[in-house]
Amino acid sequence: MEGENNSRVSEFILLGFSEQPEQERILFLVFLIMYLISGLGNLLIILAIRTDSRLHTPMYFFLTNLSLVDICFTSTTIPKMLVNYLSGNKTILYISCLAQVFFFSWFAIVDSMLLLSMAYDRYMAICAPLHYNMVLTPKVCVLLVTVCWFWASANALTHTLLLTRLSFCGHTEIHHFFCDLNVVIRLACSDTFINDLVIYTMGEVTAIIPFIGILISYVHIFVTVLKIPSAQGKWKVFSTCGSHITVVCLFYGTIIGVYFNPTSTHTAQQDTASAVMYTVVTPMLNPFIYSLRNNDMKGALRMLFTRKSGLTL
Questions:
Q1: What's the rounded Cα separation, in Å, for the pair 31 and 84?
Q2: Where are the beta strands (DSSP E) in the chain?
Q3: Neighbours of 18 (CB within 10 A)
Q4: 3-class SS at 88?
Q5: Checking DSSP bridges between strand 91-93 and strand 11-14, what pairing results, if any?
Q6: What are the residues whose beta carbons fall under 8 Å from the beta carbon of 123, sequence distance 6 or more?
Q7: Cβ-contact 192, 166 below 8 angstroms
Q8: Are 207 and 252 in contact (CB under 8 A)?
Q9: Which residues, at least 6 apart from 23, have a Cβ–Cβ distance to it below 8 Å?
Q10: What pLDDT is stored for residue 313 in this prediction?
Q11: CA 75 – CA 77 distance, rounded (Å)
Q12: Which of 11, 19, 109, 297 could hold 152 in an S-S bridge, CB 3.0 to 4.6 Å?
């Protein structure tokens, strides 16, 4: 019976933000601009780091991967939404919805674990500078990033496979602009206990534990910074962490608000608005956050543009 019910659902309907044509045209332009800014900004960060040998350090290696993940993250959801607004057809195939759940979960978990790796990098650089080069060798950095990608893919695949066992009994309207795992599960008419259990248990490993690790790292960093005698020295050391702290607050603040609160405390509209923050706004802001107050990144970007203009001439 489960398979029979499941086979009847060949597609879902992504309701998105609005059903008014005028509002949809405005939303299309807004999200297209944000998507282009996000993609171009993160691509420039990757190119600047790769072309400037001075930035071939663990911190910027992790930042390169974070920028790559942000490009993939936004490309999982935004292009489909833009196509829906253009065509007026808000449907998404069942198999495409599963694919979106998998890739969205994969990149979100990688994002979370990369932020932890970057916090560990700052901890080693500030609290144990003499051991920094011995501990964070190129091999260790590659291993950390590889573990992030593989662990995240295993988690995402688990959630996606568990989703295939659910029946939907003709419930196809998704009150979101993409196939969010929690929202899709709520549509099911079969028992979702296992799915919910796995989300909360794995969520602790993939989101809460990294978040706690980041907090512990910054507690140690804060204690170390307080021991620096001069105010200028304190500011100089702590300013290297400002960009990372901002991104962590933006990313985890919205995710914890959506996924780790009882569903009765927030509406579908609030979930959708919060999702925009961590799926679109945060990836778009990351290049600005990491470059505007970072002289090394400014210099690398300036060098990149100089090279490009030189080649053009």
A1: 12
A2: 11-14, 91-93, 173-174
A3: 13
A4: coil
A5: antiparallel
A6: 217, 218, 220, 221
A7: yes
A8: yes
A9: 17
A10: 41
A11: 6
A12: 109
What is the reported pTM? 0.89
3-state class of 249 per DSSP?
helix
Torsion angles phi and psi, residue 19, rounded to 5: -110, 5
Residue 272 one-letter amino acid: T
DSSP letters, 73-138, are: HHHHHHHHHHHHHHHS--EEEHHHHHHHHHHHHHHHHHHHHHHHHHHHHHHHHHH-HHHHHHHS-H
Sheet with strand 173-174: strands edge to edge? 91-93, 11-14, 173-174
Distance (Å, rounded) from C-alpha 220 to C-alpha 120? 11
- Of 119, 117, 109, the closest CA to residue 72 belongs to 109
- Identify each DSSP E strand in 193-269 by its residue range: none
Amino acid making up residue 312 = T
Q: What is the largest CA-CA distance in the chain?
A: 71
Read off the pLDDT band of 243 (50, 70, 90): confident
**pLDDT digits over 108-158, tens only?**
999 999 999 999 999 999 999 999 999 999 999 999 999 999 999 999 999
Which tokens go with 284? Answer: 């778009």
Is the Cα torsion angle 257, 263, 268, 270 positive or negative in sign? negative
CA dist 301 and 291 (Å) reads 9
The reported pLDDT for the residue numbered 109 is: 93
pLDDT at 287 over 70: yes
Phi, psi of 294, deg, nearest 5: -115, 105
